[in-house]
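PROTOCOL LOG
Step 1. Enter all chains and additional molecules of the complex.
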Amino acid sequence: MRHVLTIAWKDLRSELRTKESINAAAAFSMVILVLFSFVLDISGDAREFGGGLLWLVFAFAGALVLNRSFAREQSNDCLDALVASPLPGWALFLGKALANFALLAVVELIALPVFGILFNADWLRFPGWIALTCALATWGMTVIGTMFSALTVNLRLRELMLPVLVYPMLIPVLMAAMQLTSALLSGTGITGDDWVWVKLLIGFDIIFTSLSLALIDVILVN
Amino acid sequence: MKTKILMAMALFSGLYLVRNLYVILLQLPDEAAQGAIYRIMYFHVPGWITSFSAYFLAAVASIYYLVKRDSRADEFAVALTEVGTIFTMLGLGTGMVWARIIWGVWWVWDPRLTWAFICFLIYAGYLLLRKTIDEPGQRARIAAVVSLFAFVSVVITYKSIDWWRTQHPGAVLSFRTGGEQRMDPAMEHMLFQNWFALTAFAGVIMMLRLGQERMQRELDALRRYTHNL
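Step 2. Run joint prediction.
Step 3. Record the structure below.
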């Protein structure tokens, strides 16, 4: 566990010093929000499409953070050094995932109020549920994103392959998060039909976290 | 010898499919509610089962590769996944034709259909990914991991008619309804026969693809060898 925190803290510190991906992701999420406001007719409120819109923004902005996760270790062969260090592979993965989760959470905390103002959405009706949905879905995104960032880090066509692979894998999480957020925004809360999405999110997180932890060594070590 | 067995299998599955077509088109009656178009089910359902079986075997081959590092397992995985993807396309295509007649639209964003489409996208991504990696060992490793991730989508697609309320017809085959007969025994029997024929056909094209893959690897190895001279 100590190793995990070391890696997470290392990633967060290097991000805090440069603020490269977080600035880019926050700015990019604003750009998408504004673009969407032109596409959609937002005369009333965000009840119908709010959830979908929000998670598309997070998915696109989040990809900026996640893609960099392993790619940033390429300069000066840092990745080789990390793999050669006494850290177990799963600790490296979990540390990176935790750091990414924190970064995505920051981006979401910036985007949520802005979204609320621009699209007239009330986030505070079910604060607990919103927080839970965000946490579960963000962790799912983080795990897939970090894993595929590791998978593609040495590929020739990394920038091309990453979105082609990551977005289809993310559809389940995004779909569930969109449905739940829309239900919460519309004021009905989580009713009988929505539970399947909560279960899907939990199942997705458990399955892919364990798969990633089991397989990360195969990816990193030749 | 091997080619002869393959030829025999190809001939058998081809003749069997023709015979099935004859029964399906000319002997079995129209279905009471849907009319003639229901016959597409004899290809739609077995097509999907074949496709998912291929993905399942590809996942097994991938696990085997990761454990034993045997490149033959990787050859199987790629051949099986390609055949599976072809049958996924067959399943999506036949489903769309059926939907156009029965529902009046080619496509609806219903859970089962959406998951099936996601499945297709993920496996298409897998095949694309294989093309972008040149080093065989690295390609096999990364592809095996992606194959395991992708298989989760197959499980969800298979179970989606139970988990969500969907427009797609629910389970009708007796092994999924717990023995309850929801369809005429003669029709179900025919469906199983066509499943067998399609699986035999899938086996034949899988073996052909496997042969190509082996040839390709040999060529790549020779090319590397001459390059190093």
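Step 4. Note key features.
Chain A has eight helices and no strands.
The mean pLDDT of chain A is 85.
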